[in-house]
Prior knowledge:
Order of helices and strands: EHEEEHEEEHEHEHEH
Largest sheet: 5 strands, mixed, barrel
Shape: globular
Structural class: alpha/beta
Number of helices: 6
Helix content: 25-40%
Amino acid sequence: MSIKKKYPILEFDPDQDAFINPSMIASKYPKLPSHLVVCFFNEVLKELLDHNQIFLLTTIRGENDLEVYQMTDLDIAIIPGKIGAPLCAAFLDECIALGSKYIMFCGGGGVLRSDLTVGKLIVIDSAIRDEGMSYHFIKPQREIKANPNVVKKIVSYLDSKKIDYVLGKTWTTDAFYRETKKKIALRKSEGAILVEMEQSAMIAVSQFRNVSYGAIIYGGDDLSNQAWDSRGWKDRKEIRYNLTMLSIEIVLTLNQTKEVHQ
């Protein structure tokens, strides 16, 4: 049966065996811990490294290298997040091939509601797929839902610690310079409260590879009004450090979650 469609992005092929597979790197690098944190805060990773809380486990080599760290006292790997769905999700795919099964993502994103203050924690429960990577892992559809069992684990932990958060939908896009006012209005009408560049692809890869994945993103810059407001979101060092440590705690609770396929 032909997979040809009107638009190439819709030509999904469910075949698990690609011409090049991430499993090909398995013999080149050490096996990773089953728990993995993807952290977008490089200054936090540097602080953890400087204080001997993590050490460099290995470096996955390529045109873009990926440093893989491990916690000194915990069997958890940590990698720096890479901007954009293709690179971030491809590195996730390789980490899965090396043994990662339970994954937490922590990062920042632009809010689409002004009441979401800087530092507000947003647990991702779904994503609008306005990027290209996810369409090669999950059949075409407008949105993708996060694993509800993982989401439940995350919110249960936050509730137990009395940590404030919002559960919501994100808009994942490849082109942050093309977030026009009309598109922002449309995504808000669809229920998106956040915009970022990786989540729909990260969810898709995790579902395709049958692993547990969850994400917490803190409210950063504000795109909800007529003018963009950066709100100094990249300078919130305490928020970024605390979210990283929180993700480390939560990833250890993800064992035994059931996988969900779209």
